[in-house]
């Protein structure tokens, strides 16, 4: 050690503090907790059954195989149908695309009308919609079944689209309303002075501005609708069962031994779309959550 | 006077679908549900009037009481767990760390997954003969026990853990947004005042973030009331009926047990509870002191 | 160019009455500034003229036509907003032509008008840019251009400069003035910045609490404010107010301060109904006080000074008159050593005297 | 071909093989079988889907119920077609077991096609496991527990039990009939007699049921019935309470019921439980679909299909005019009991789904919580019986 | 009270050098203002003094002690921020005492110090309020109080007034000045508002691009700016600049404008190295020009005027000198009819002349 006391000058000598190490330790441990299930899923899905029977859930596969994935996708059975969950995958898409489009289109229009035009009863409408976002679905299920069947939409593709639209509307409206609330009202007034009507202002002025929130809405709706189980089960009809319902069927259909690897593969396949959406657009996802959750 | 209504006639037309949905899908169904809850309906609606009978039976049913208790236990653990864990994550992520976005991504990805998926994965991971317990035993600790999933008195906590796993990232995201909104000068002021960082968080930041905490709590609370998929996939209500929840009660009686009257009474109770808790918050968030923007 | 006439206008928001029986007549080609503190109803009045909100009672006439229930686009008005409210995703050209397209104007006519407006405003090279690629001043011109292409007769401005920094504000003020000279249109301009009001207006309407307090030329407003509110609101640093009582009995009229000092106010022109012994407030602007020379009709004002604020060209000297804070503006070159008590001078003819309770000019 | 969309919940290996027999027979008869299997919850999910579709006006061609009251309200609402024309033509009334026939008849009309007779109250055991532990097949409950202790000592799971609530109910009914007897069973389920619940006989049943809990393993939760059955097929466990459909799993595993896996109907009091599955045919407007329904009704109860189906399924045919020579040893035991009149009707026939659900809750919550005493159990059953009156 | 001394300070953010070898010595009890445009490094310098960021090179001494590596709390400094950074959910009292509690000061000592600070700042009645219940001025006092209770010797202010409206700003400026008189502490005050700088400072350090351009008294800065940047930055409306060439050859020294006009600059004191024929810029402040009277050593300045902006006490007259825009400030009572071309007057001794390329004062 040098005997001269160092004169403070220039940059402080940097040091790695215990606090810093603690921060990273905490984060890494937490990350492990969050990744654990994903790890288990992936690892198990590529193990042959023989290894799974050994019971070591976390061990690395000795003889990795993609057979479970193929089976899950193409010929896992639900009852006597052994077509895998690819059917559900297609169904989920057929439900997803129109539901996302319709609910967003409607949410955007309503959000726009509520923020800028404030017609009579707008507050009431908004209040009910908001409340609707928080009410347990169970309240609606049975009457909706009856209502949809009265108009002949029960157990059909349009039916499930309507249901997703109904239950997606509060969040979409809120999202767009909050977004439009952040757009200066002056912009709207200027367009009014320029002679723009309801639709002209919406299509020419507001929609081009709405790209960011539309992205957010698409992300939220895609993950939300894809992940839905209850509505798919009750309203979609057998022909249109979405992937989550198929997954549940596959997992609960057992012939003798439970094929954990196939089930895990099916689970990953089911979670794939939302996960991809999420990983590709994580930043927007965070923003979307914030926008949807907090007053704009 | 002519103007307001006619001027916004296009707006009214645009809102027509919303009105239809609100009137039929929301208000109509709620009214219908409440009405049915006062009848003796089994599978098909009968419009008699039996007073509070369904409600009396409801609160005399063990399973409903247990469902309520479970909801409370689950709700408390889930909300408090998410808030604490989510807050810690947000605080640690806010420490100017490397690879921040990687960590953020990891903490939030479960929120993108379906409860069905979450439930299945945790069911397998925590299954005593298959998952963590067995693994640790295979490592040599033969006495290691973690069998909460199959213990009636503990299973509900497992559901809470799975829920926390899924939703604390959400809390993190909300609080992180709040933390990032904290005036940097406040940190400097605290540093000049010589206040240790953890105390700044505890005494200054947490109180400042209270609106975010409230928002997060409301979101979590509504998830609690709706919780269904998670229970279905994780325990199916078992062992026994130890992890039953109200939402599952309603669905079961609605569709399997063919007692719609009782089911609607249960959902009415849920609805009223949510309304009572939520209405003040909604009002203060969205309608109080609202300044018109004119049109 | 058109007259604008507002008759008995009332506007309520719910239970809140924002404008009360307001009357205002604006001549052709006149530049009127609405000046007042935040929340006094300036924007509300402007929006009512534009047709952007519904009036509760009263009428609005533009160019001799009752337009109370007309759509904004049919009123012959153009509006320039504080934020300029340019359509962000359209080019400058798109911004200018949007209104015309809405009115289904033929496209060559649109081309022609846009070209003309662009020429007047000197924004030809910018036509293909987006608003985000423009400077503050260029944005303002585009915003004005949007009204210009529509050949409007009345321009409405809602605090168009308040978002800008001081330097740009000065420049654009000059620009607007020039444009008014050039176009000769009627202009109604809202601001809460008194410098803007004083420099731009033909007449200023000072508003407070939804009521027009005074409608007069800038000079008149500055020199002879009709009440204490107007006097205090216009001028920076503000007018000094000292309480006291009138003494109109024997001899020259006087104003007795609370510490007993009697100021001779011989040159002051009372507007009427001033009574002897009436409690009143005298208002003197900082630059109306002279520490050195005694002007012709000057009156002595004893003042104790305790702080000098040099501001470059001038300095402000702060002190007290009869216990009330009082500022005096002196030349930046002049020197005062504080603290000191001196006899200063002011000319009563330039001062204002207000009733103590009602605040009305006496 | 007439398309028939059939909702059912036969999704396990043995079941799927069985239902395939119906599909084949129907296709052979000129129809087109559209399979709509919905897994889960012992039929809960499938019934949910089916009822919703019927209520929603988009009914399937046919849908499965358990023999009993599950479809009562569909009948009351006039949503089901009566099958009397086909029944008369096919001689159902002469050849179908009268108890079963009664269970599908409402106001003198037949509303469902019963396809099998299932007996729920079987005790299955693994001779290999018992032998290894040095035990022998029990004839009463004391012997059962003695064997259980030996199995435990040998490190073999005594009772392979599933965690699903309905399998625990099934185990309970086994005990109730086996240890309590037919009278007690009827007093409770049919007469809803509270005194019977509070009787010493029922207390004994409750004690036995309580004791059973100690003979299950910790893997019970999350295990499905067929996995439990597989445990005795492979000798991992000694006993399994399950319905006769367990045989399907046994057969699917290439073993022979009666020899490789032992069967005891109603340990203690030998009784044959009559339950099973039926298909209902919702009213619909489409004449094509109605035609398909008629064809399906006929095919389902045709003697050939009956034999083919029931052999795979493990149940016994509802008709007595079919060739019973090929039935296995266990089924033969059952048929003999039925002939002797030692039969009980299933709970689905006796009580409504609502009440049955309450029983399920009480039984499952007792069975999976060892801290609850048999007195608690008696009290909870008593309150259900009280409330169900 | 303590001296502050900054020696060869350098600060980098990554590759960006924000401060370059900066030296600054501040005497005990002095009020120093750091003035400069946005982004010039004022806050960076202040934060370095406070210890809120690490220096790249150089030293910081406070009160004769090298504190380069000390923690902020140990430097004897208090800091007042633009947003005040009050702890939002604590009462005023909590805000004042929190730092002391953290330092484990005995509670009666805390009481005493809080009471004393509250007295000095006249915020005793506010002690139990939350920051959100305070006015802008009151908040500022609490923020100052937070430093006061800790008995610091150096106060650092980072644009404490820039969030406030004009009126309040004027008041609080006076308040800060008063406090400085009372406490006598050393104060370093950052602003980009030149009025604040001129009114408050003992000395002003005008900064640009991380370098101190001029460190001098306000008067000196206003009268004799060392370069064109300082001249242009201080003063509002800004100094008029007209390009031309020096003509130092025969006869009286002159400044030749681009249109050939030759201005007589006899009274001007060159600071040295001015060369004949050198391209240069002359700077004249608007108030240094007189339209009417010719002062003692005045020079004629031909100017064409085209717009009058009355601003109450004064008016600005806009025009051109040799094609360059030029503003003249006249008394509000004076009258000018535009457009007109007149001969105005200015005194060369008050003007500034800069090198055209380097901008340095000649
Ligand atoms: N849509 C509205 N709903 C309810 N109150 C309103 C609405 N618009 C304005 N107000 C109220 O009317 C009053 C006048 O508002 P206005 O916008 O005209 O003020 P202003 O003079 O333009 O103020 P500023 O200078 O801040 O723009 C204010 O008290 C305001 O709160
Ligand atoms: N943490 C940082 N990282 C990188 N660059 C920074 C950081 N802080 C400041 N800078 C840069 O350093 C320069 C000086 O910043 P500083 O905040 O000192 O300016 P300032 O003079 O206080 O300006 P203002 O008047 O806007 O407050 C700016 O260019 C800024 O972009
Ligand atoms: Mg306004
Ligand atoms: Mg700064």
TrEMBL record, chain A:
Q: Which domain of life is it from?
A: Bacteria
Q: Which Pfam families match?
A: BPD_transp_1 (PF00528)
Matches recorded under PROSITE patterns: ABC_TM1 (PS50928)
Q: Which InterPro entries match?
A: MetI-like, MetI-like_sf
Which controlled-vocabulary keywords does the entry list?
Answer: Membrane, Transmembrane, Transmembrane helix, Transport
Q: Where in the cell is it found?
A: Cell membrane
Family listed: Belongs to the binding-protein-dependent transport system permease family.
What is the protein's given name? Glucose/mannose transport system permease protein
Give the species.
Kaistia soli DSM 19436
TrEMBL record, chain B:
The record's subcellular location field reads: Cell membrane
Q: Where is the ABC transmembrane type-1 domain?
A: 68-281
Query: What Gene3D superfamilies does this protein map onto?
Result: MetI-like
Instruction: Give me the segments passing through the membrane.
Output: 12-34, 71-93, 105-124, 155-179, 200-225, 262-283
Which InterPro entries does this one have? ABC_transporter_permease (IPR051393), MetI-like (IPR000515), MetI-like_sf (IPR035906)
Keyword match Manganese: no
Indicate whether Membrane appears among the record's keywords: yes
One of this protein's GO BP terms?
transmembrane transport
**Keyword terms of this UniProt record:** Cell membrane, Membrane, Transmembrane, Transmembrane helix, Transport
Membrane topology according to the record:
Multi-pass membrane protein
Give the matching Pfam families: BPD_transp_1
Gene Ontology cellular-component annotations: plasma membrane
Question: What PROSITE patterns does this protein map onto?
Answer: ABC_TM1
PANTHER family to which the protein is assigned, alphabetical = ABC TRANSPORTER PERMEASE PROTEIN (PTHR30193)
| Family stated for the protein in its record | Belongs to the binding-protein-dependent transport system permease family.
What protein name is recorded for this chain?
Answer: Carbohydrate ABC transporter membrane protein 1, CUT1 family (TC 3.A.1.1.-)
* Source organism per UniProt: Kaistia soli DSM 19436
UniProtKB/TrEMBL annotation, chains C, E:
Q: How does it sit in the membrane?
A: Peripheral membrane protein
Q: Name its GO BP terms in alphabetical order.
A: carbohydrate transport
Entry's Gene Ontology cellular component terms: ATP-binding cassette (ABC) transporter complex, substrate-binding subunit-containing
Question: What is the protein's given name?
Answer: Multiple sugar transport system ATP-binding protein
Gene3D superfamilies, alphabetically? 2.40.50.100, Nucleic acid-binding proteins (2.40.50.140), P-loop containing nucleotide triphosphate hydrolases (3.40.50.300)
| Domain of life according to the entry | Bacteria
| Gene source species | Kaistia soli DSM 19436
Primary location group: membrane
